[in-house]
Task: structure prediction
Amino acid sequence: MKKEYIHSKKKYFICFLTILSIFLIVLIVSTSVDIVNKIKQGRYIGQEAEFRNSISISETGEVYAKPDLAVVNFSVVNEAKTVAEAMSENTEKMNKVIEAMKGEGIEDKYLKTVSFNIYPRYEYDEDFRNRTLVGYEVNQQLQVKIRDMEKIGEIIEKATSAGANDVGQLQFTIDNEEELKKQARTQAIDKAKAKAQEMASQLDVKLGKVVSFNESFYLPYYDNAIYMQEAVGKGGSAPDIQTGENKITVSVSIVYEIY
Result:
């Protein structure tokens, strides 16, 4: 009986050693894999540490070009005692404006109604406590794109003579802005490279690869609404519109590794 007990105890001990051995083997393999992964990560971590030795350069490129597209909004604003009367008068005038635009050679695709609003008009008593409905205002706005830059003033005069009594948001834009952006970007990058080389020489270091690059684009917005309203009034002589030049600006920021 005692022998059987000893034999059984030996079996349990051997099983325990076997399980312990397997656990140790798994632990060793897992640790080895983790070490290998850490070594791989260390390569990238090492690179990040090297990137801390860097210089950052910011430069701007500017390109000037004459605009080739004008965008202007013509509005017809009128009042009447009823909605029907206000709409009828407004529609008649706006249709004449549209006909005048087509008469100047502007295609349908360059004519777009951008807003149409009807507002009630009220009058208040002296205490501003009570109000009385006295009529309605209709405001319809037509956006016109003008390709012939020489005819901007003439087209404005035709629109106001046809019935447009509010002219605004005149903008001068450039169709192919992407090509001009490329030119401005190239200019900015070349200036940044030259500055980086100059700084590296002054610091007695060498330039490495580019670590990061950022770009921002700016095209100023010109709104000549007030000028247009004062200049054209309600028809008459065509205003002299000067388009000038648009400035396309691209700013870049480049970080170089140095060693």
